[in-house]
Write a structure and sequence with these properties.
The chain is of the alpha/beta class and about 425 residues long. About 40% of the residues lie in helices and about 10% in strands. Strands 8-7-6-5-4-3-9-10 form an 8-stranded mixed β-sheet. Helix 3 packs across helix 4 and helix 8 runs parallel beside helix 9. The radius of gyration is 22 Å and the shape is globular. The structure holds iron/sulfur cluster (2 copies). One iron/sulfur cluster (SF4) binds next to loops.
């Protein structure tokens, strides 16, 4: 039988997060734990739905259920397993997150392996790819830097490494890096535009141990997508490869950037993903580029479009709420990023160099960099524009994006403020 979940080695902190990485079978079993089915009934249901020797299924299912129980996911285990309804507040994930936040475990690290790419997306944050970019912009992380970094991330308590780009599939040592990551017990994901995937490549990624791939799409058909990526045929290739990943067992997640060109077809896109059982992440967080150009911002959704999204069938994705104090984000605490030239960032979305891996080790930079220490020391009051803001609960502020768009890490981005105000007005019934 397939694994229900992956488990890291030795470290309690990783053991607790494993529950977030349940595969389809894991979720299937979890969904049966409603307090109405006995363990034997659950084993019967697994046997009916998945191939496998009954004895083996029984052993694996019972061990999985006791693992769920150990993690506090089940509130009752004896006869009819039932999910502990209070898990989100008091469960292992909440505890883990709190611990990582206060002790600075970089749970999530995104590594830009190379800035080479086969596409020229309009919004690409790396640099403006529309002209012929200078050769020196196409940085690639050397293996001599990447290999020790992975061991340091493991030591620092990282749970998930996302290999990004440019186009990560163009990085020659990608599978080698994934293998080391997973052998160390961390989860490895790949962020890709998906065009270069094929059966062989997907198989290699699975064999290396990747748990999933994040593929970006900008439309429900080639019309918008291809003009955004400036590559004819890219939609067809990316979408077909999303489906191929799903079929082959490399869990795909589609990343959607909502722009003024695709805002009107968001419903169509989400319906397409739903129909094909593909999970997705939607963002409107368009930023300027790390080379200082910002023509990409011209593509942000208009106020009229945003209003329509707030009233549309998928309003839940756009009508966000959050705790007011969350203007401080996970930068330099549970997140970190590594640029393709070896700079360590507080988050891949906040390109503030805290040190460079060609000069110092990751652990040295993560533990001692004044840049990171300053960010960790920030209090809610230090975000002077946001402190006391009446729209804060409706704001999707991310310090990295604000920094890229305004140059002020603790400041406010007028576009975000406008959207937060619109959400607030909408919540009060104003138009
Ligand atoms: S696929 Fe990613 S890295 Fe490549 S151009 Fe598009 S946004 Fe940039
Ligand atoms: S709405 Fe503007 S001022 Fe208020 S929290 Fe968001 S970014 Fe800060």
């Amino acid at each position: 039988m397939a694994f229900y979940y992956r488990r890291g080695k030795n470290q309690e902190i990783r053991r607790e997060l494993t529950i977030l990485e349940l595969n389809e079978l894991g979720y299937f079993i979890l969904n049966l734990c409603q307090g109405q089915m006995s363990k034997n009934h659950i084993i019967d249901a697994v046997c009916e739905s998945y191939e496998g020797d009954r004895k083996e299924v029984e052993v694996d299912t019972l061990s999985f259920l006791s693992e769920l129980d150990y993690l506090g996911i089940l509130g009752s285990f004896d006869d009819e397993p039932k999910i502990n309804e209070t898990r989100s507040k008091d469960g292992p994930w909440a505890k883990l997150h709190e611990e990582a936040w206060s002790q600075y475990f970089p749970l999530f690290c995104t590594i830009e392996t190379t800035l080479l790419c086969n596409l020229k997306c309009v919004h690409c944050y790396n640099f403006d790819r529309s002209e012929s970019p200078k050769k020196e912009l196409y940085q690639t992380l050397s293996w001599d830097v990447l290999e020790p970094l992975l061991y340091d991330l493991y030591t620092a308590g990282t749970l998930q490494v996302s290999f990004s780009g440019g186009e990560a599939l163009l990085y020659p040592d990608l599978e080698r890096a994934i293998r080391i990551t997973t052998d160390l017990g961390m989860f490895a994901r790949v962020k890709s535009n998906g065009v270069l995937l094929n059966e062989n490549k997907i198989d290699q990624l699975i064999r290396a141990g990747a748990v999933g791939v994040d593929i970006s799409l900008y439309g429900s058909s080639s019309k918008n997508h291809d003009s955004f990526t400036r590559k004819t045929g890219s939609f067809e290739a990316s979408w077909n490869n999303v489906l191929l990943c799903k079929e082959m067992g490399l869990e795909p997640e589609v990343s959607v950037m909502v722009t003024r060109h695709n805002a009107y077809e968001i419903d169509e896109m989400l319906d397409l993903f739903k129909k094909n059982n593909i999970s997705c992440q939607v963002s409107m967080d368009m930023t300027g580029r790390y080379d200082g150009t910002d023509s990409s911002l011209d593509d942000r959704v208009t106020s009229e479009q945003f209003k329509r999204l707030l009233r549309g069938p998928h309003r839940g994705l756009f009508d966000v709420r959050r705790e007011v104090h969350e203007v401080q984000c996970a930068c330099a605490r549970t997140n970190c990023g590594i640029s393709a030239n070896g700079d360590v960032y507080p988050c891949i979305g906040a390109p503030i160099p805290a040190g460079n891996l060609k000069e110092n080790s990751f652990l040295d930079i993560w533990n001692h960099s004044p840049v990171l220490k300053n960010i960790r020391a920030l209090k809610y009051q230090d975000f002077s524009s946001c402190f006391g803001c009446k729209d804060a609960e409706f704001c999707e502020r991310s310090s990295g994006s604000v920094y890229v768009n305004t140059g002020d890490y603790t400041g406010a981005d007028p576009n975000l403020c406008k959207e937060a105000r619109m959400r607030h007005d909408y919540s009060r019934g104003f138009d």
